[in-house]
Specification:
The complex is a heterodimer. By secondary structure, chain A is an all-alpha fold. In chain A, helix 1 runs antiparallel to helix 2, helix 3 packs parallel to helix 5 and helix 6 crosses helix 7. The longest helix of chain A has 38 residues. Chain A is globular, with a radius of gyration of 24 Å. The termini of chain B are far apart. In chain B, helix 1 packs across helix 7, helix 4 packs parallel to helix 11 and helix 5 runs parallel beside helix 8. Classes of the chains: A mainly alpha, B alpha/beta.
Chain lengths: 484, 315
């Protein structure tokens, strides 16, 4: 059941209406039932896998709280092994097995491990991480174990964020399930507005840019030069609009029910450095890795070589979290490498800026930083999007090949789409970027609320019409992060 | 904000949105309609089906049939009027069957020869179809969700056509258009034209259960039989390379056809597999040599099974 489907619209209306009609004490049960239905709309039988980890973590949480010392640690380890084990089997087993076969065959041995024909359960990477943060926070003494099994299950399965985050912390979400959320028209209106905004980003911008990206990346060897650059830049905006669009829909859906989830994006392409980029992109995952991997490894409070190692390994694992493919590992490693270079070259960077006088032109300095960050990020996205390492290698080595000659190929009809699609997609992308730029200076939502009713209705009518008139509904493009 | 104002706001937004969309469709559609597009050929095919004299042999399918048959040659071999209803697989199985069903006459012979695993129609293509042929809406089997999607697609199509009209960009397809069809419904304008490099639609089929669609075909067969019409099933022309990639799946499908279809099956999938060199631009679309070859195979199979043969008496 995709968020951009009529099936979800009906589901959302039914669940939200029923939620406010029933007494508070039954609401968590309704949400749990709705979440089960939502999850089973994908592959029903996988609810048992979710159920397995929920049971393990629920009891692990109780026992971690009750016990001390080694036993306490043992329950935490059991919980982590159960979650990472499920993730490893369903997500990484075949990848590891394939590479093991390759390695063994190169040294004249045979791999007897069977290949498993299994589908990745949807949202597995997200809800296992959310579950792990629960037991870790209990272990650290920052969270009390949830006594109500149903409410704990709902914490893991809450449908707005079940399949692609944000990856919540128990301190933020669990208390909200106990609190009564009274019907609040403003809340619901704000939630619906956020949903509409997310839909706009997804179906109008992301899905339109996807046409060119998919056409080029499906067989990149047919292209060189400008088409590859165009497709890569398009992908940078496609993945942003797709994922942030999904996050807005998730946050908006939760808000209509009275819940507040964490913000997952903060205008990342306006970051003027790579460090700043990672505080604005997929914030829930970045902070998860920061709190549960990077800082326990020592963070930056260690020697420089160790600090750089911590950075690199955190990003490498973050890359691997995204998928069982060498391309994701390279993407993660590359981003780690970027940060190492950025941190180690800070003094040199500052000296160069001082020397050329850039520090006296703050706007130019910002634009320069923004452009460099965007270009480096785009380059890394090649590995994220390419189907395999060979394709990624081809693209990176042919990005600037025959640039002038490739101009004739850089037209919509050669790149799997039409002039109209580019006009609409890029036009709406420009609207988005302008609004995000303004958002950096003026809080748009409070400003909108101060406008008269006819103006507000006019603006939201315009947004609705943009979605209905320009949304891509003929091909149901799954949200990119659903595959993780 | 009160509950009442929230509810009124949502209703107002909904009414205004729908009204604006309806107004756009009402005003813009006639301004930008192009009656020479490929989908408009459905009007000619329906007219042919309504007016062609008996005895008739009707082929039902997608563009694989349109670009896969020489009806004139078949007529000379079998002595019957041949009607090629093939248009576009993207219009879906329901449309192809319903459209033909509406024009069936007693003693017609129908040969269903659709692309592999043909199922639901694509809403964008259906919107193109109903734009130029509003009558075709009656042949669509649409759920409420599909109808909403189709309506939205029609409005979007109006806007994209308006965009190109304002910019004076001519998007008339020189190859795939209404004028490319012969009086029998065969598509011929690609004969002798340069082929694009690679054959498209060369996918690997998923091994799926085709029962729902076979039931749909059986429903058509049942209605056809009640009207005194004979129905047969034949496989589409298919490029050899695509067949090799999908051999197992197609063998399973053909077994499902044999056991579940309520009509005789002419030949096997392999009967209509031809070398890639005889195809034009997709794994279903034949060039002129390929059309002749496929038609000969079809004629021989029909004659060997004495299907739709009508010998004219010489004076």
């Amino acid at each position: 059941m995709l968020f951009n489907s009529l099936h979800f619209v009906v589901f959302f209306v039914v669940v939200t209406t029923t939620y406010y009609l029933i007494p508070h004490r039954f609401r968590w049960q309704l949400l749990l039932l709705g979440s089960c239905y939502f999850y089973m709309a994908f592959v029903p039988v996988y609810i048992f896998i979710l159920g397995f980890t929920i049971v393990i973590d629920y009891f692990a949480g109780l026992y971690i709280e009750k016990t001390t010392g080694r036993t306490r640690r043992l329950y935490l380890i059991i919980s982590l092994i159960a979650n990472i084990g499920v993730l490893s089997v369903f997500k990484y087993y075949n990848f590891i097995n394939e590479n093991l076969s390759l390695f063994l065959s190169n040294i004249g041995l045979t791999n007897f491990m069977p290949f498993l024909a299994i589908l990745l359960p949807i949202g597995l990477s997200f809800h296992t991480f959310q579950a792990m943060s629960y037991t870790i926070e209990i272990y650290r003494g920052n969270q009390k174990a949830e006594r109500n099994f149903g409410i704990y299950a709902l914490y893991v399965m809450f449908y707005p964020q079940l399949v692609a985050g944000p990856i919540e912390r128990p301190q933020n979400v669990l208390p909200q399930f106990h609190k009564e959320h009274k019907f609040n028209a403003d809340n619901i209106a704000d939630g619906l507005k956020l949903i509409a905004w997310g839909m706009f980003k997804k179906v109008v911008i992301a899905d339109r840019l996807a046409m060119t990206v998919n056409h080029v990346y499906e067989d990149p060897t047919k292209f060189e030069g400008l088409p590859l650059i165009i497709a890569t830049v398009f992908f940078a905006f496609q993945i942003y609009c797709d994922f942030s669009g999904y996050s807005d829909i998730a946050l908006g859906t939760a808000q209509t029910l009275g819940f507040r989830l964490m913000k997952n994006f903060n205008r990342p392409y306006f970051a003027t450095s790579l460090s700043a980029f990672w505080t604005r992109w997929h914030i829930s995952l970045s902070t998860w890795f920061r709190d549960y991997l990077y800082i326990p490894l020592g963070g930056n409070r260690v020697s420089k070589p160790r600090w750089y190692f911590n950075l690199f390994i955190t990003f490498l694992i973050s890359g691997f979290w995204h998928g069982a493919n060498w391309t994701f590992l390279i993407w993660g490693g590359l981003n780690g490498f970027y940060l190492i270079i950025e941190n180690s070259s800070r003094p040199l960077n500052a000296a160069i800026r001082q020397f050329i006088g850039l520090h006296r032109l703050p706007f130019l300095e910002k634009m320069f930083g923004l452009l460099i960050t965007f270009c480096l990020t785009c380059y890394a996205w090649i590995f994220f999007r390419a189907n395999n390492v060979d394709d990624a290698w081809y693209i990176t080595t042919h990005l600037f090949s025959n640039l002038f000659e490739s101009v004739h190929q850089a037209k919509p009809s050669s790149l799997g789409t039409t002039f109209y699609d580019w006009f609409v997609g890029l036009g709406c992308l420009l609207i988005l970027l302008i609004l995000e730029y303004i958002q950096g200076r003026v809080a748009i939502r409070p400003w909108l609320k101060r406008q008269s009713t006819p103006v507000q209705i006019g603006l939201y009518l315009a947004l609705t019409m943009l979605i209905l008139l320009f949304g891509v509904f003929d091909v149901q493009e799954q949200f990119i992060y659903f595959q993780f | 904000m009160t509950t009442k104002s929230l509810f009124l706001g949502i209703c107002l937004l909904g009414i205004l949105s729908f009204s604006l969309m309806y107004a756009i469709r009402l005003v813009v559609a006639p301004m930008v309609r192009n009656d020479e597009v490929y989908m408009a050929a459905s009007i000619d095919k329906e007219h042919l089906l309504a007016t062609a004299t008996k005895p008739r042999l009707i082929f039902v399918g997608g563009s694989g049939l349109a670009l896969g048959l020489n009806s004139t040659y078949l007529e000379s071999q079998l002595g019957v009027r041949v009607i090629n209803m093939g248009l576009h697989a993207g219009l879906g199985l329901s449309y192809s069957l319903n459209e033909t069903q509406a024009g069936l006459k007693r003693r017609d012979v129908v040969i269903i020869s659709t692309e592999y695993f043909l199922a639901n129609g694509n809403s964008k293509l259906l919107a193109q179809l109903v734009d130029v042929n509003p009558k075709a809406y009656n042949f669509l089997s649409l759920s409420v969700f599909d109808k909403i999607r189709l309506f939205a697609q029609s409005v979007q199509r109006c806007l994209s056509n308006l965009f190109y009209k304002v910019l004076k960009i001519n998007r008339f397809d020189l190859l795939y258009n209404r004028g490319a069809f012969s009086p029998n419904g065969d598509f011929k304008s690609h004969f002798g034209k340069q082929k694009p490099g690679k054959l498209s639609d060369n996918t690997i089929f998923k091994d799926i259960d085709y029962s729902t669609e076979i039931d749909e075909i059986n429903d058509f067969i049942s209605v056809a039989k009640n009207k005194g019409v004979s129905v047969f099933y034949a496989y589409p022309s298919f490029a050899a390379s695509a067949f090799e990639r999908n051999k197992l799946t197609l063998t399973k499908l053909s077994h499902q056809h044999k056991t579940s279809l309520n009509c005789p099956v002419i030949g096997t999938p392999k009967s209509f597999v031809l070398p890639d060199s005889l195809f034009f631009d997709t794994v279903y679309h034949l060039d002129s040599l390929g059309v002749q070859k496929r038609t000969s195979i079809m004629a021989n199979l029909l004659m060997s099974k004495r299907i739709a043969i009508h010998r004219k008496h010489n004076p």
